[in-house]
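Thread: PHD finger protein ALFIN-LIKE, structure

OP (GT): Posting the sequence first so everyone is looking at the same thing. Length is 111 residues per the record. Can we get the C-alpha cells written out before standup tomorrow? I want them in the notebook alongside the other entries.
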Amino acid sequence: VFRDFKGRRAGLSKALTTDVEDFYNQCDPDKENLCLYGFPSEQWEVNLPAEEVPPELPEPVLGINFARDGMQEKDWMSLVAVHSDSWLLAIAYYFGARFGFDNLTGNAFSI
C-alpha cells in the first residue's frame, strides 16, 4: 500500500512541478471532464474518468480543466494539488480496507 501511495504521489508531484507546463496545456477547458491520475510507476496522466460503473478504484476529482482559465494559475494549481492529496488518501484507505489492515493481528506492518 505504501509503495503504491509513494509512486502515485511522486507522479502527481511531477505533474504539478517538473512537468507543470505540459500538465497545464493538457487541461484544456474546452475538453470534457478531465481528471489527473497518478500511477504507482511514478507517472501521471490527464484523462477522462473510467467508464466502468462503479469504478474499480476511487476516482480523482472530475473536471479539473473547467476552472483553469477562471482562476489565477497559482490558485488553480493549489486547488488541483488539494484534490490530488484527497484522492491519494482515498486510494490508500481503499487498499487498506481491501487488504484487511483494519484487523488488529499485528502482522499487517511487520517487516
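GT: Both are above now. Quick notes for whoever picks this up: Helices lie at 2-16, 20-26, 73-98. The chain has a mean pLDDT of 91.
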